[in-house]
Amino acid sequence: MLLTTANKTSTVALTPTGDHLVAKLPAGTALRTAIVNLKAGGKTLSARFEKLNATTAAPAKAVGAAYLCPMQCEGSASDKPGSCPKCGMALVKKS
């Protein structure tokens, strides 16, 4: 569920994209709160994100994965060295 700065609520579907989920919002939508509910295997995980329209916070810097699996296994990207959780190969530094 999404709560806009205009106090309107709406629901959008989350679409899997690589190793994360994406919600496509209508153009010009400014959010105040987002509540995400994920269900899998009979279990539910809920997360609430508040103050999404806060203007006093500094903008966050995007952090990309610096290490990837050489076999390009899904979900293997990491910000530190290690091994792939799927195939066990050592992650390599992204060039």
Characterise this structure.
By secondary structure, the protein is mainly β. The chain is built from no helices and eight strands. It has strands at 2-4, 9-10, 14-17, 20-23, 31-40, 43-49, 67-68, 92-93. The chain has a four-stranded antiparallel beta sheet with strand order 2-1-5-6, with no helix packed on it. Strands 3-4 form a two-stranded antiparallel sheet. Strands 7-8 form a two-stranded antiparallel ribbon. A hairpin with a 2-residue loop joins strand 5 (31-40) and strand 6. The radius of gyration is 17 Å and the shape is elongated. The model has no long low-confidence stretch (mean pLDDT 81).
Structural class: mainly beta
Percent strand: 35-45%
Question: What distance separates the N and C termini?
Answer: 38 Å
| Number of alpha- plus pi-helical segments | 0
**How large, in whole angstroms, is the Cα Rg?**
17 Å
Reading side by side through the largest sheet, how are the strands ordered?
2-1-5-6
- The string of secondary-structure elements, in order, is EEEEEEEE
Layout of helices and strands:
Layout: E1 2-4, E2 9-10, E3 14-17, E4 20-23, E5 31-40, E6 43-49, E7 67-68, E8 92-93
Antiparallel strand pairs: 1-2, 1-5, 3-4, 5-6, 7-8
